[in-house]
Amino acid sequence: MASLLHAIILVVMFISLALLGQFIVNRLVEEEVMRHHHSAGEAMMGVVGTLFSVLLGFMVAAAMERYQGAEMHGEQEASQAASVFRLARGLSDEDRPRLRQLVRDYIDEVLTKEWPEMERGEPINHGWEAYQKLWEAAVAVVPENSRQGNLHQGLLAAMQSLGDHRRARVLLAQSGMQTGLWVIVAMGAISPVPGVLTT
User: Fold this and answer.
1) Angle CA(185)–CA(183)–CA(16) in degrees, nearest 5?
2) Domain-by-domain residue ranges, the chain?
3) Helical packing angle, 179-190 and 2-28, nearest 10°
4) Which of 50, 54, 113, 136, by CA, is between 20 and 30 Å from 160?
5) Helices marked H in the chain — which ranges?
6) In the 8-state DSSP scheme, what is residue 124?
7) Exposure string over 91-118, b if 16+ CB within 10 A, otherwise e
8) What angle, 0 to 180 degrees and rounded to 10, lies between the N-to-C axes of helices 146-174 and 128-140?
9) Helices 38-87 and 146-174 sit at what angle, rounded to 10 degrees?
10) Which region among 104-108, 145-149, 153-157, 182-186 has the lowest average model confidence (pLDDT)?
11) What is the reported pTM?
């Protein structure tokens, strides 16, 4: 919801700046001067408009790619947490409930604290302690037989993958569009289009 509100504010702001720019140009520049330079201005504005469109297209594609990447890493993180929970079933009566509870604690921390912070665009400072406790518990498991040894290897692999996807999700959630690109978009949005020169 916050992202939609930000998008609406940006669109309204850029349109307002564009209309203000058009108003200022029409007030300060005489109509005869604009008509005299119309051909050259139209050609230049066509080039500027094309470059701006290409840049805007790249920015939209990059934003969509980041969103899809964060979604994919979030799904993989959840999948690996589920794998850890399932693999714990074959461990000893001491390790199984401890690991499963730590998985629940980790998921609860992610859902109740991290996801709302990601939605608000805030830095993520939660979840690492729960993840560290889960990781330490997985490493501390001592297999009692070869079957548990195989399960332990799968458990460690799932934890490694969970950590990789977690880090990728957090990095993608905290990365945004560079300030320089926003400046270029703002300048392109308030630049006059060829039609303005004829008014």
Assistant:
1) 60
2) 2-54+73-198
3) 40
4) 113
5) 2-28, 31-36, 38-87, 95-109, 115-120, 128-140, 146-174, 179-190
6) -
7) beeebbebbbebbebbbebbeeebeebb
8) 160
9) 160
10) 182-186
11) 0.64
pLDDT of 183-195, one tens digit each? 766 766 666 544 4
CA distance 79 to 151: 17
Return d(Cα 54, Cα 164) in angstroms, integer.
33
- CA dist 71 → 101, 118, 131 (Å): 25, 12, 19
Burial 67-90 (b: 16+ CB within 10 A, else e): eeebeebbebbeebbebbbebbeb
**Would you mind telling me the total number of residues written for the chain in this entry?**
199
Distance CA 30, CA 32 (A): 5
Query: What SS3 state is found at 92?
Result: coil
Tokens at 161, concatenated: 């993958």
Q: Which residue has the tokens 């050259």?
A: 40
